Amino acid sequence: MLIIENPANGSIITQLQEDDAQSISAKYRAARKAQPAWAATPLATRLDA
Fold this sequence. Notes:
This protein is of the alpha+beta class. It has one domain (about 1-40). It is built from 2 helices and 2 strands. The longest helix is centred in the middle third of the chain and has 20 residues, at about 20-40.
């Protein structure tokens, strides 16, 4: 678990699951697959995302 703390007061802002090599690889493949469609999306549309 990755804990994100507020440095000013030490309170916990959020907690995130840590990724392992397999989940990072899957996320990378998904991003690579989606990139051509994103690149073809008009800038005005991407700015609204």
